[in-house]
Amino acid sequence: MNTLTRAAWEAAVVRLLDDVYVFAATGPRTDCSWQEDALAVMRREVQDPRGWAVLDGDEDSEERIEHGPSYPFLPLPSDALATRLHPITPGCAEELLMLMGYEWMRPSEEEPPQARSDARTVLSRYGDRISCYTNVTAARTTASPDLSEGVTGWAPLTESVGDFGVVAVSATEIGVFWSFNPL
User: Is residue 1, in this structure, part of any structural domain at all?
Assistant: First the structure.
């Protein structure tokens, strides 16, 4: 069994998501609901339990200073996540992470194998018993929606023109991977 290293995980996150407007951070799981833990990550109230990389294009932005620590996320109550995020399979979460790197659409050529490998590496951090959630509207009715046309609808968690993401939940950590405004 391969043990995931910090270097391998960080390299995968950067290759997959560093060229697009995203937020990618992990926080600890607590005795609270996973929704509360996800909101703590979105509000930047918690640190990565392993001290690994965070991608946060708004870390030092004027908008964040003006709008508060959760920017670009809206200040949402946990019940908002319960109604806007839907369970998906880990395979669907992989697909969505790859689509983030291609501005929400499938690449015109055959999917680069490195992107799929990187998405698997990113999710492997959260273990075999991972639960995944997304705000993509196609996931309202199935945990494995057809993403052949890319991401075409979402329940917004920001005031951006568009936003979608993946929340990965394990027994000890919660990862939030969010993409904004590719349109």
Answer: no
CA distance 43 to 177: 13
Q: What is the pLDDT of residues 101-151, one digit of tens each?
A: 877 666 656 666 788 899 999 999 999 999 999 999 999 999 999 988 888
Residue 57's alpha-carbon distances to 54, 67, 83, 162, in angstroms, are 10, 15, 27, 16
Q: How many domains does the chain have?
A: 1
How far apart are the C-alpha atoms of 67 and 72, rounded to whole Å?
8
Q: Answer yes or no: is 104 within a domain.
A: yes
Tell me which residue range forms the domain holding 70.
6-180
Q: How far apart are CA 38 and CA 175, in angstroms?
A: 8
